[in-house]
């Protein structure tokens, strides 16, 4: 059996090591905005995105602030896609649809399209494990449908 010892001197490196450090990645989106907490008028932009996270289907909507000093800035709204009585999705859907969801109602996402809402924005400063993180703004809840 042959001994497969590295014959390079300690601290030496080759071109493959350098190439590994030269890799670059592009950001998939802009950094999350940070705006003062409060109530804003906003509309949904782009299309809704759904994804699975920790065995639950989630909804992601992007709201763009309309008017004011923060006009044009975008904040994210995330919620689990469960339809139980007090879920964030059901409450947001009822505000967007302008009616109370009844048994067997089909709760489509089109009710969020081309609507103007009053939203509450809050700042997140910790992750779900209470570890500090870079602060960012997010939609806490939809307050009312304006148009």
Architecture overview:
The structure is a single chain. The chain has 147 residues and is mainly beta. The protein has one domain. 12% of the residues lie in helices and 39% in strands. It has helices at residues 15-21, 88-97, and strands at 38-53, 56-65, 74-80, 116-126, 132-145. Strands 3-2-1-4-5 form a five-stranded antiparallel beta sheet. The longest helix is centred in the middle third of the chain and has 10 residues, at 88-97. The protein starts with 14 loop residues before the first helix and ends with a strand. The mean pLDDT is 84.
Number of helices: 2
What share of residues is helical? 10-25%
How would you sum up the major sheet? 5 strands, antiparallel
In percent terms, what proportion of residues is strand? 35-45%
Q: Unreliable segments (pLDDT under 50, ≥5 consecutive)?
A: none
Please provide the ordered H/E string of secondary-structure elements.
HEEEHEE
Shape call = elongated
The overall pLDDT average reads 84
The first-to-last residue Cα distance is 79 Å
Question: How large, in whole angstroms, is the Cα Rg?
Answer: 23 Å
Number of strands: 5
Q: Reading side by side through the largest sheet, how are the strands ordered? A: 3-2-1-4-5
Coarse structural class: mainly beta
Number of domains: 1
List the helices and strands and how they pair.
Layout (H helix, E strand, L loop, with lengths): L14 H7 L16 E16 L2 E10 L8 E7 L7 H10 L18 E11 L5 E14 L2
Antiparallel strand pairs: 1-2, 1-4, 2-3, 4-5
């Amino acid at each position: 059996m042959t001994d497969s010892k590295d014959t390079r001197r300690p601290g030496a490196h080759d071109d493959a090591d350098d190439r590994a450090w030269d890799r670059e990645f592009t950001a998939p989106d802009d950094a999350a905005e940070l705006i003062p907490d409060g109530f804003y008028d906003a509309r949904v932009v782009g299309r809704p995105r759904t994804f699975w996270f920790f065995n639950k289907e989630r909804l992601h909507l992007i709201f763009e602030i309309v008017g004011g000093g923060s006009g044009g800035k975008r904040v994210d709204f995330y919620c689990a896609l469960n339809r139980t009585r007090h879920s964030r999705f059901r409450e947001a859907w009822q505000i967007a649809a302008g009616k109370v969801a009844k048994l067997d109602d089909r709760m489509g996402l089109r009710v969020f399209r081309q609507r103007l809402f009053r939203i509450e924005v809050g700042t997140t400063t910790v992750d779900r494990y209470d570890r500090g993180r870079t602060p960012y703004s997010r939609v806490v809840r939809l307050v009312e449908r304006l148009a």
